[in-house]
Specification:
Layout lengths: L16 H15 L32 E2 L2 H6 L6 H8 L9 E3 L4 H14 L2 E5 L20 E5 L6 E5 L4 E5 L4 H8 L4 E2 L12 H7 L16 E8 L2 E4 L12 H5 L8 E8 L1 E2 L3 E9 L2 H12 L7 E5 L1 H6 L8 E9 L5 H13 L2 E7 L5 H11 L1 H10 L16 H19 L3 H14 L15 H7 L2 H14 L14
Parallel strand pairs: 2-4, 3-4
Antiparallel strand pairs: 1-2, 5-6, 6-10, 7-11, 8-9, 8-10, 12-14, 12-15, 13-14
This protein binds flavin-adenine dinucleotide.
Length: 492
């Protein structure tokens, strides 16, 4: 099955029209609206793409494609804004061609050709960016734009059982990676919601954040060493369990969002697969009690695998609550020891904050916790369906210290709801309102969704000026002609 060129997943996957309409009816009932109309998903024969400005040289012809499907698939990411533009027929920045290298050597050949031809190169992993990170909107200063799709670099190359780590290619998607590690009893245990269609290289390039991950949250924690091809040559860091030798060279690549080079492989720290589990979905009448319990558990040193707070609305939409109370999902996992004692202490903390702990189960897949998990895993498909119904659904994510959390939460909720009331129908204005408010209140424009082109205006306000200057200097050193993903993080 091919990946869809618009929307989440593979052709044939996701909600069918009847299911989408049923979802629309349900939400309309909840919100007191007329049942919405359903727009058809875009068809490839109706997609208009500008003429390609580049042709692949003969030596690369068999790994390059200019098929409309491939070009369309590599044009838009997966945010609300991307999905809405696709639905409205706005495919404004297609790549001129898509390259599918089968080896690191072929990555190097495409890179050399782009440099010689004056073409911009946009690395592409799973294409799940929600920050316009893969959209080849590179400006007019280039002969064209090439999307470099790493899907064939999908192997675990080497395993070091003693150190519990592996050398892994950058294009491997989450499930392909876990399939290769499972027979060894190992796992990376990095689960962004986009796990099914996002890649190791993409996670590293965007500093992604996992779920079931209150201790090792960001991919950064798992990287022992990383290897990238830059326009200036190979950039490979020494594989180490840790090091205090000056600023970390791997950190320059982690989060570089395709602007410095193509991450072709990395040595990753692994874990044994957990066999002990305990999970509870704790109901709270007050949101304040719920977040205080979340803080109590987070600061207790118990390190649950999952500690996720759903407000009353989110609990309702994921089937974990009835809309009258917030739900805190707490899950413990271990490969080594039973976890019931940890669960019992976390339950106590929740009770001290007013939580009701009705559902302590030995498996994370049961009850309200299981309902949340199922809804979460299907999130990408639900997102497509809601956009087709003309509904605005988007994820904002950020981070703030606990001392500022109550005012911050209230401020961003208020700004978002005000924008929803004033401008409903234009999702970009709602995003703008939330983003500006969270930057004003001292938060970050992204905790794990990356900067891309979409978050640039706020990122430019968040980072120190001298850091921006240092980043531009690093870019000049590694990519002097500025062909790597221009417009992301810094101006070319
Ligand atoms: C439904 C949904 C849920 C999501 N949930 C989460 C979540 O829970 N946590 C989270 O962190 N993110 C989440 N995201 C955002 C997205 O999945 C992450 O940013 C992810 O890390 C991107 O990986 P990818 O392989 O799809 O990268 P792509 O989208 O292909 O690329 C993202 C960026 O990384 C660069 N890049 C990709 N591969 C490489 C490489 N090998 N070398 C150099 N640069 C590269 C690209 O140029 C681009 O700038 C979600 C997105 C969706 C649509």
């Amino acid at each position: 099955m091919r990946r869809k060129f618009w929307g989440w997943g593979l052709e044939g996957q996701g909600l069918d029209d009847q299911e989408v309409l049923a979802l629309g009816g349900l939400l309309a009932g909840h919100l007191g609206l007329e049942p919405p109309d359903l727009r058809p998903a875009p068809r490839i024969e109706d997609v208009r793409l500008r003429q390609p400005r580049l042709q692949a040289p003969g030596a690369l012809a068999d790994i390059c494609s200019q098929e409309p499907w491939d070009r369309a698939e590599h044009t838009l990411g997966k945010s609300f804004d991307d999905l809405a533009r696709g639905l409205a027929g706005r495919w404004e920045h297609p790549p001129d061609l898509v390259a599918f290298p089968r080896s690191e050597t072929e990555v190097g050949s495409v890179l050399e050709w782009c440099a010689a031809a004056g073409a911009a190169m946009v690395p592409y992993g799973g294409g799940s960016s929600v920050a316009r990170g893969i959209e080849p909107d590179v400006g007019d200063g280039y002969a064209g734009a090439v999307s470099l799709d790493l899907r064939h670099l999908d192997r675990v190359l080497e395993v070091d059982r003693d150190s519990r780590s592996a050398r892994i290619q950058g294009g491997v998607l989450g499930p392909q990676l876990e399939e290769q590690l499972r027979p060894l009893g190992l796992t990376l245990r990095h689960f962004p919601q986009s796990f099914e269609f996002s890649s190791l290289g993409g996670w590293i390039a965007t500093r992604s954040g996992g779920h079931y991950a209150t201790l090792f949250t960001h991919i950064d924690e798992f990287v022992q060493g990383v290897r990238a091809l830059t326009p200036r040559g190979v950039y490979e860091t020494r594989r180490l369990p840790g090091s205090g030798a000056g600023p970390d060279p791997a950190r320059l690549l982690i989060g570089s969002e395709g602007t410095l080079g193509v991450i072709t492989e990395a040595w990753m720290r692994l874990q044994d697969r957990p066999v002990h589990r305990a999970s509870a979905a704790v109901a709270f009448a007050s949101f304040e009690g719920a977040w205080q319990a979340a803080r109590g558990v987070a600061q207790s040193g118990l390190w649950p695998a999952n500690c996720r707070l759903l407000d009353a609305n989110e609990a309702l939409l994921s089937g974990s609550g009835d809309g009258t109370h917030a739900v805190l999902i707490v899950t413990f996992e271990s490969a080594d020891h039973p976890v019931e004692a940890w669960m019992a202490r976390a339950a106590e903390i929740c009770r001290e904050c007013g939580g009701e702990v009705p559902d302590v189960s030995a498996t994370a897949r049961a009850g309200a916790a299981g309902a949340w998990r199922d809804a979460f895993v299907r999130g990408g498909h639900t997102h497509d369906a809601l956009v087709r119904l003309g509904m605005v659904q988007e994820t904002f994510e950020t981070a703030i210290t606990w001392d500022r959390f109550p005012d911050f939460h209230a401020g961003v909720m208020e700004a978002t709801q005000r924008a929803l009331r004033e401008v409903c129908g234009t999702g970009a204005a709602i995003k703008e309102a939330a983003s500006s408010e969270l930057i004003r209140l001292g938060g970050t424009i992204t905790h794990h969704h990356a900067v891309g082109r979409y978050h640039r205006p706020w990122y430019d306000r968040e980072r120190p000026d001298l850091f921006a200057e240092a980043l531009r200097a690093a870019k000049r050193a590694l990519d002097p002609a500025a062909i790597m993903n221009p417009g992301v993080l810094i101006d070319p």
